[in-house]
Write a structure and sequence with these properties.
This protein is of the alpha/beta class and about 250 residues long. Helix content is about 45%, strand content about 20%.
Length: about 250
């Protein structure tokens, strides 16, 4: 087989995979999520007050726990999701849109990341809440990237740390960089929302950005320990982090 034919075959397989992801993945995720039982929804009183007030918020979570966005205490039509510029970014964007999220911004649709971030910021200014996986799209695991801090400061919108866990995962990838997992049908799940992290009134510098990122990281780590505490299958965060740092 010639090189051009191989390239054509790879392109054909990729297109078929993306079509299947949209046509099959959307109803599978939607049907599974509709059966999940929310056994625990723990919301910090200050965050609950902000949600009830209806002001735009940034919900920050780990990439491997992104299933939690499907059970946030906010209507999906009021949420805007930022999708990374991966090879399957367009297909993932379509899946997220079909799941009922009101706004979807895909980095794959822009020549550079700054254009996507500007569009995302406009969505926040139009009243949407944001959902950001703060250690995505490629890790390292449990490390907060500065983008979410910049977004909070630029829009003057609080960050709400969120973590989620499930008792019975249908998908579990312990060797993936983010240790991604997703709940099985009828699985009880736990979601915890921590205290809001308010944007600074001062101009951000490298030091203050790092400080706020550390505050957010610690809040997410604490929430994740809480929601994982009664799920026997979940490794402790200390062991997960040890495996990651030692290349296991």
């Amino acid at each position: 087989m010639s090189r051009s034919m191989k390239d054509t075959w790879r392109l054909f397989r990729r297109v078929c995979f993306r079509k299947a992801m949209v046509c099959l993945g959307t109803p599978l995720v939607a049907s599974a999520a509709s059966t999940w039982r929310l056994s625990t929804l723990d919301i910090h009183p200050e965050s609950e007050a902000l949600i009830h007030a209806g002001q735009p918020l940034i919900f920050a979570m780990w990439h491997g726990r992104m299933f939690g966005m499907l059970k946030l205490p906010v209507a999906r039509k009021n949420l805007c999701v930022l999708i990374s510029a991966s090879n399957d970014g367009h297909a993932i964007t379509e899946v997220v849109r079909r799941l009922g999220f009101g706004g979807v911004v895909s980095r794959a649709s822009y020549k550079n990341g700054s254009g996507a971030m500007r569009h995302f910021l406009e969505q926040l200014q139009n009243g949407y809440h944001a959902v950001i996986t703060v250690d995505g799209p490629r890790g390292p695991i449990y490390q907060v990237k500065p983008g979410v801090i910049w977004m909070s400061q630029k829009a003057q919108i609080p960050i709400i740390p969120v973590s989620a866990s499930c008792a019975a995962p249908i998908l579990k990838f312990p060797k993936a960089w983010d240790k991604f997992h997703a709940p099985n049908y009828f699985s009880p799940i736990k979601i915890a929302l921590g205290a809001p992290i308010l944007p600074s009134n001062d101009a951000l510098c490298e030091t203050s950005t790092a400080q706020q990122a550390n505050v957010l990281r610690q809040a997410l780590m604490d929430l994740t320990k809480t929601v994982d505490s009664s799920h026997a299958w979940v490794e402790t965060l200390e062991n997960q982090h040890h495996d990651m740092t030692h290349g296991k």
